[in-house]
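Summary for the steering committee. One of the milestones for this cycle was to obtain a three-dimensional model of the protein with 3-methyl-2-oxobutanoic acid bound, which we needed before selecting residues for the alanine scan. The sequence and ligand used are listed below.
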Amino acid sequence: MTTEPTTAARFSLPELAAMKPRGEKIAMVTAYDAPGARLADEAGVEMILVGDSAAMVVLGHDSTVPATMDEMIVLTRAARRGSRRALLVADMPFGSFQLSDHEALANAIRFVKEADADAVKLEGAGPTLDRVRAIVGAGIPVMGHIGLTPQSATMLGGYKAQGRSALKARGLLADALALERAGCFSIVLEAVPAAVASRISQSLRIPTIGIGAGAGCDGQVLVWHDLLGITEGRAPKFVKRYGAVAAEIRRALADYVAEVRSGAFPGDEHTYGIPPEELALFESELDAGVLVGAEDVRGSGSDWL
Ligand code: KIV
């Protein structure tokens, strides 16, 4: 296992902002642990999101709502250990920012102090705008998230595309502009018609990150398990699977189980030896009825590597 230090220069917000006018697309992916963040970082993503999607894809819940601050802190801290260059954005879970500006700021500070996050993400506009101002005012960068906001999916009538009427599209644009004015450095647009997301992106100075929002956004984000094909079966329309990792895991595990059962694993190459004279002595002592487990031999035989 590699344990390289995480001291390389991190990607900065000015570097991110400069990509939009140059027309350079931003790549973002979720990650929830150190090995995943390390692989994402090595692939060159500009941002890693420790999404509250963890509640579903890691913790096995049916929605993102149950994710807690303590869980998100553990996952963010793990991702931090793996990521060197990418900006690390921590998703503020449901209940961590809704109650008051004070609580929102306190929880954002936890992400920065306890998990070394570079930024936090908050869903919604409206009342969220004050939270954004409070957090940004304290010097913590905030990413917005509008369109389909899973934490309020029930209010939105389910996991549906948003902004599909002129009125709703205008509302999304107004929300995006308000989030930009409130100080967000970027906004996620989720499940928004491509034409609407494109117009919103053109209307903002800050970059938009799309998920199910078409190619006109300034960047894209996908959930780790969706992208890699760890989740299987029916996926949202906007998911593209770049791998079939679940099938590979299933194959490897089946091979392992079969080899354990047949005795093919472990082979000699996975097995520790003992010098022949020591083995002969050990066996002759046993044959002679020497007691094993006496205090004077205990603890002197560990040889792990
Ligand atoms: O929680 C998450 O993974 C997200 C992305 C889908 C943007 O919010």
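Key point for the committee: Residues 30, 49, 51-53, 64, 91, 145, 188, 190, 211, 221, 223 surround 3-methyl-2-oxobutanoic acid (CB under 6 Å).
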